Amino acid sequence: MSKLSIKMNDPRLAFIGRVDFTDPLKPMFTWPGSSVELKAVAEKISVKIKNYRNCYHNYVGISVNGEDPKKTEITELKEETEVVLIDGLDTTKESRITIYKPMDAAHFYEISEIILEAKDKEAELLEKPELPARRMEVFGDSVSAGEVSEAVEYAGKPDPEGHEGIYSNSWYGYSFMTARKLGAQLYDEAQGGAALFDKTGWFHGPDFVGMETIYNKLRFNDQIMPMTDWDFARYTPHVVVIAIGQNDANPENYMGNDEEKSKKWKDGYKKFIDTLREKYPKAQFILTTTILCHSKEWDDAIDEVAKSFNDKKVQHFLYTNNGTGTPGHIRKP
Asked: H-helix or E-strand containing 268?
């Protein structure tokens, strides 16, 4: 049996997403889909991982050569544990491995070691994978995070009650499926329940926190640990998708009904876009919501803001059945 332990500062590892390198030997993964990629020859792959739980069942995911992933539950809390991610790989050829975070701020985790094992030959870590040149970024909510995407029996239906996160998988969110089809990196700043403004939406209850607070954060849920700032110089996307407006009707669905509050939201939404455009002046911006049921007035407000820019680099996208497609989350194909 050959066994190779890889430290997380090994230069042959590639990272995608807002990964926290405060301790480079124990990088922390906070946002959904954030990942480490490697090329290897191995039969079995494990990680040493420490989980910081907020809610739900918590998982770490692995995909081999871009194929459908496997999720493994992390049951230990705040204690480092060794978790087997996959076994039985073909050691006659190299594999491209993606170890990724399937969930949003239901938890954070840090990885201190990746362990490669093989029975009949030497386990090997190969050269650093080349990352796609195209770059995307999404600022969104649970749909952008792939929440409840694996509940295929509930397609077109409300989410299963008490699902406890077992059906959530960022791999099957539209954002990551789009990135894979385009051959692009994706930084997915998506959080279930997030609205634009603080004190609205469903995230971080009962003291709700909005995208206006978390969009520029690395650690973004102080129910787990204190928030920290993100350095925007670390990543510049070509395309930015803003998919906010689904959760903003909580606690009050005022859009189109209260002129003053409606104007405040539209002004705040425009300011949010302006802030990101200052950071990414060359990027194409796509404004959208989802096919999850919601009031049309929110999409009308987004359309009004998009048109106010009078700029081809800011476009509003509507799905055919926008806001009317399903009462529950979007399921994987």
From this structure: helix 259-279
Domains and CATH numbers, the chain: 2-125 (2.60.120.260), 134-316 (3.40.50.1110)
pLDDT in tens, 47-104: 999 999 999 999 999 999 999 999 999 999 999 999 999 999 999 999 999 999 999 9
Alpha-carbon gap, residue 197 to 139, rounded angstroms: 13
Question: Hey, what are 225's tokens?
Answer: 């640990």
State if pTM tops 0.90: yes
Backbone angles phi, psi at 264, to 5 degrees: -60, -40
Residue 311's SS3 state is coil
Sign of CA dihedral 23, 28, 30, 36: positive
What is the Cα–Cα distance from 46 to 87, expressed in whole angstroms? 9
CB-based contacts of 233, cutoff 8 Å, min separation 6: none
Whether 197 contacts 147, CB under 8 Å: no
